[in-house]
């Protein structure tokens, strides 16, 4: 799930203290098991591969549970900005839906600190979920910072995106004489972009900077590629080194000389279109762009587009998950649990991910319906040892810290262009972590 604009929930959840959380079951007249309420599930997938994926998921749920009364609502607009706003307001009013699409990990702390999430350990005992999900998926789905059920499961991941891929247009690279498999460090990519622009009419890298998350995402993968796994994890833990942070900014600044001219006003979908049109050689994005490529006519994997690990990150899988959380006092909890049980099945994860350009978080799902690119991604997800959580998409940092990081990117790096203050700003932001 890519988001063009991330709205912090700091202000809306401020004041929703532990002692003030009340059960909605009494005021809504749900009864002891919530059977009189219709389950309400919100998501932000309103177009393209995401809409196809979630509709296929819903169809599968209705076939398996035809008697469950559930209403699935799409909240579109602004790369999930409207969904974020809706959830924020409803959290403030202690009126969360039965479930909603969101990121797990540190992103859920904003809810768990106010005891707004419930324990679904019973759901995780169904369908072999505890044995089938990866250890990272299980860890990031557990409550943190909650006075009720600390360490209990509070969400079910539906799909995983890899965040350290470098996508490219095959024909552009062939014309430029660039071998993407030869790029072993971020500096090699810079040289490749220069070669592309010397020998073709394409730009070196497609980038949309309209929202700060794309630049934060690029900066993070450069940090990982240049300074390594330990430096990346140390940064997340508030123990990063200024030289590593600064060096990543300097490299991204050099990359920017080879972005499309409209990068500052383009979103990532507009930028990605340049790969499909042959107007750009490379783009760094999560593997959701594979869903866009799948829907593009006459744009085939290996023939027209390809992907390699971002230079310097071979043998690493940067984790990103989409999930469905379970609120402590949402409407129709029994129906919600049935939906979450279904989300955790092999059938659900095939139905959703084969359209979304993501992969199943379960490690026992057959790969025959996923094609060569996603099958390779599934193999890496299962086998690689290092799986650092994504910074730009809420698994690694809380919503407040993420908001601060995006502000630094927007105001200091993209705005004033002051790498020194941007470096200190990034270090200051993660020092609040935990």
From TrEMBL:
Pfam families: SBP_bac_8 (PF13416)
Protein location: Cell envelope
Signal as UniProt keyword: yes
Alphabetically ordered keywords of this record: Signal, Transport
Superkingdom assignment: Archaea
PROSITE patterns: PROKAR_LIPOPROTEIN (PS51257)
InterPro entries: Bact_solute-bd_prot1, SBP
Entry's family note: Belongs to the bacterial solute-binding protein 1 family.
Protein name: ABC transporter substrate-binding protein
Organism: Halocatena marina
